[in-house]
Amino acid sequence: YDVPGSICDSLGINTSTMEKMAKTVVVKLWPNPTSGKVILAFPSLITQSATWHLFDPLGREVKEIALSAGQQEHSLTVEGLPGGLYFWKIEMEGRQLESGKLIIIKG
C-alpha cells in the first residue's frame, strides 16, 4: 500500500496507521435485528463529545443521539420507526468514526 507513487502515497495516507485505527474502532450494536430497544457499546472510542445518527433507506436522518466523552454504552429506542433497513454512523469533530446497518422488525 505505501508504495512510492501509489494513490495512498500521493494523498499522504499512511495505510499502516489506518489499519491500526480500523482495529481499534469497534462499535457494537445489539440486538440487531431489533423491534424496540438497542444498545450501543463503544469501549475506549468516545474521547470527546460525539453524535450517533440513524438514517432511513433514502438517506434521511430519523434519529440523532448526543454521546458524551468517556461514555462507553448508550441505550436507545427505535419505537415509532417503521420496519426496514437503516444505516447509522458515529461522528466526532466532523469526522466519521464508525458506521453500520440496523434492521428494525415489526411484529
Shape: globular
Q: Count the helices. How many?
A: 2
Radius of gyration of CA atoms, rounded to a whole number: 16 Å
Bin the helical content.
10-25%
Oligomer: single chain
Strand order of the biggest β-sheet: 4-3-6-7
The strand count comes to: 7
N-to-C SSE series?
HHEEEEEEE
Instruction: Report low-confidence residues grouped into runs of 5 or more.
Output: 17-23
Characterize the biggest β-sheet.
4 strands, antiparallel
Q: What is the overall pLDDT average?
A: 81
Instruction: Quote the beta fraction.
Output: 35-45%
The assigned structural class equals mainly beta
Q: Kindly, what is the distance between the CA atoms of the first and last residues, rounded to a whole number of angstroms?
A: 47 Å
Question: Could you characterize the architecture of this molecule?
Answer:
This protein has 107 residues and is mainly beta. Helices cover 14% and strands 42% of the residues. It is built from two helices and seven strands; from the N terminus they run ααβββββββ. The strands form two sheets. It has a four-stranded antiparallel beta sheet, with no helix packed on it. A three-stranded antiparallel beta sheet has the order 1-2-5, with no helix packed on it. Strand 6 and strand 7 form a beta hairpin. The protein is globular. The termini are far apart. About 7% of the residues have low confidence.
